[in-house]
Amino acid sequence: PVSKMPPKKKDEAPEAAGAARFGRVRNTLKMGIVGLPNVGKSSLFNLLTDQAIAAENFPFCTIEPNEARCAVPDERYDHLCSLWKPPSEYPAYLQITDIAGLVKGASDGAGLGNAFLSNIQAVDGIFHVVRAFESEEVIHVDDSVDPLRDLETIQHELCAKDLEYLKRAVDQEKTDVKKNPTMKLSGLFVETMDRVEAMLLQDLPIRGGTWSTPEVEMIKEKLPSLITTKPVVYLVNLAKKDFTRKRNKWLAKIHEWIKARGGGVMIPFSVEFEQELWDLRADPDAQSAFLETAEGAKSAMPKMVQQGYKELNLIYYFTAGEKEVRCWTLYGGSLAPQAAGVIHGDFERGFIKAEVVAFEDFKALATSKSMAEVKAAGKYRQEGKTYVVKDGDIIHFQFNVTAAKKK
Known about the structure:
Blueprint: E1 30-34, H1 41-55, E2 67-71, H2 75-84, E3 88-90, E4 93-98, H3 113-121, E5 125-131, H4 147-179, H5 187-201, H6 213-222, E6 232-237, H7 240-245, H8 251-260, E7 265-269, H9 271-279, H10 284-292, H11 301-311, E8 314-320, E9 324-331, H12 336-343, H13 345-349, E10 351-358, H14 359-365, H15 372-376, E11 381-383, E12 393-399
Helix pairs in contact: 1-9, 4-5, 5-6
């Protein structure tokens, strides 16, 4: 007999893959920037911070010196703001942490080893800055520019730290089992931990493995602080000349290395290019002239921020009205009541329904800041508690404030 697939439930969130399966499910997730000394990491972080501060309309918002909040560039949000022109506009933000000091031997406590590791454990994804530019002024820690060697160095340090953590966790589990006569080590535990160890010994990140759902659950439960389960975006820092002509002898090799070593997105950029462009910000004509000489190259910063957001499995929905246009950050796969709870706990507790229109439908149909045309076309939907919120939904929640919290 031919076995038929069960019908797909209408509103299921897509199955997460790779690093997303190991991620923390919450709306406040952070990316951390790592890299060896002198690769352009701090320059990149300073550019991100300066651009964020320049765009920031909350002067009272103080952040740790190594933290940046970067607005996520989005044409959909810009469209809603230009339509409503509200007094309050609030984009989605990506939180980025500058993680200091990774050096060879960090996992043995060399350099800033241990502080570095607690910082990297606190973030949810990694921007790994790699140097592929030659420069007399900027010396390289290992005296020569070799991005593949640098990638190996950092990957080895991260895997070595995870190995150490794995051994501690396994020892702890064995001790707990010895103390309790009713407990024994499960086959799944032993098998999963052995496979994790085998990958780490080969300097392969855990996110790149093929894991069954029970194995993923086991890793999340017993090894919640692994570093190599986090998604990585590789940022390759080029000289301005190479960035504008889109050529560099290392790019293809780096791309191959990434594919063989756990995967991840690669974004070429140039601190030299970005800094020059940013320094001309007060003079739009000079900026245009600079870009004209750049063979069509444009800033890679927006792409970095967007990609970081995507890697963390974050999405956002919009609320739009006379007073405010705002993006609300949500973990992908969340249901309508959880989405309402991001605005206020009462919205989640007293959730009645969500009135939803997809941004694309709104843009195609609405000629003004009214929902009349959208409603006439039947694209203004009433959704209930089981609705999975989609990225770019424009939502108005109906809720009942008197709903008491269930005891």
